[in-house]
Amino acid sequence: MLIEPETAEAVAAALKQASDARQSVAIRGASTKRDWGRNTAEADVTLGTRRLHRVLAHPHGDLTTTVEAGAPLGDVNRALAGHGQWLPLDPPFGDRATIGGILATNDSGPLRHRYGTPRDQVIGVRLATTDGTLAKAGGQVVKNVAGYDLSKLVCGSFGALAVIVSATFKLAPVWKASKTIVATPAGAEVLGRLVGAMMGSQLEPVAFEVRADAADYETRTMALLVRFASLPSVVDAQIDHARALLGASDTPVQVHEDDGERALWFQHGERLWTASGAIVRASWLPARIADVLAEIARAHPHGRLEMIGRAAVGTGLIRIDADPSTQAAVIERLRRSTTVGNVVLMRGPAELKSLVDVWGPSGDRQALLESVKRAFDPHGMLNAGRGPL
Question: Where in the sequence of the chain do the CATH 3.30.465.10 domains occur?
């Protein structure tokens, strides 16, 4: 049964009714992440948020906004643009992705380098819990001392604790200018040295990406994408500095701007998600990126893996184009690695999800996760089993 409440109060009432009837509930926004998480049985009730789509407040002098959870990110930023502000989040399919879904998965893109994850940008949420309560966490100003901030807890919970009905974010001014430099180093060792040089410099990019195409390890094309955004004069100075730094190793570089730059980042953001295969998220030490690329190649020596990552953050996505049993073997090899950590299956067929745990070993934290879930959802009815909780 699909229900689509139009108010926060109606969401809370629907959850209370489902809880009293011991009905399972699945939360649905724009369905851009519908295949993420573990295999689960079909829920008794699907709660859609698409009718919760309003911008509730925008005190632009404070650089904050409060929006309902079903609002698509693209619509929110178009509404904010009138005051020269925006919410700098760029998850895959970000124009359609809803605010609630982005928070519930804590999904981010290349702009994480400068602005952090959704968890870093949210300053308050309003939640509907399974007992029908509407609760507020955090605040509506950037600085507050409201105690432990539950808005951080629900980020990445995959909707297993409560339904986010609205959220308050800090904003950023819209860029005056933007340019991107793309460097194509000759091999992983050179790429690793360039990453180290960039991180040790005084450059301040808004995005700093590493990309390794799906080809044999010895012949694959590797690239660094570095984006600068600020006043035009500042951007030009940063581009000149980056060109000199990257070109010192005889690495070919290209500068993209305007429509070409926008197309570059659009294709980069959706590159893996529009291709076939399983996608895993992994973490690593930024200083060991060359070792990471070699480790990824060893995990699937007779196949092809494609990787896109945040160079200075040390996290990224790996696409494995193979049959489910081979994909499972590659994931297990990566999880045994001492170079790559926190390997999570983001997208994959049901058969693959039956062969590996999507979230990987939880270790000593499992008991804590279960206790948090029981405290918020004692009957285990909300997005049960899909996420890490």
Answer: 2-173
Tokens 């939640």, located at residue: 127
Angle (nearest 5°) at CA 387 between 105 and 37: 85
Q: Where, residue-wise, is CATH 3.40.462.10 in the chain?
A: 177-355
148: CB partners within 8 A, 6+ apart: none
Burial of residue 16 (CB within 10 Å: 0-12, 13-18, 19+) is middle
pLDDT tens, residue by residue, 204-249: 999 999 999 865 555 568 999 999 999 999 999 999 999 999 888 8
The Cα 261–Cα 229 span in angstroms is 12
Give the per-residue pLDDT at 364. 82
CATH number, span 2-173: 3.30.465.10
The count of other CB atoms within 10 Å of the CB of residue 357 is 13
* In the predicted structure, residue 144 carries a pLDDT above the cut 60: no
Please determine, for residue 148, whether its predicted confidence score (pLDDT) is greater than 70: no
Homologous superfamily of domain range 177-355:
FAD-linked oxidases, C-terminal domain (3.40.462.10)
Q: What is the DSSP string of 225-277?
A: EEEEEESHHHHHHHHHHHHHHHHTTT--EEEEEHHHHHHHHHHHHHTTTTSSS
Q: Where are the beta strands (DSSP E) in the chain?
A: 2-3, 25-28, 45-48, 55-57, 64-68, 85-86, 122-128, 134-138, 163-170, 172-173, 177-183, 207-212, 222-230, 253-257, 278-283, 305-310, 315-320, 341-347
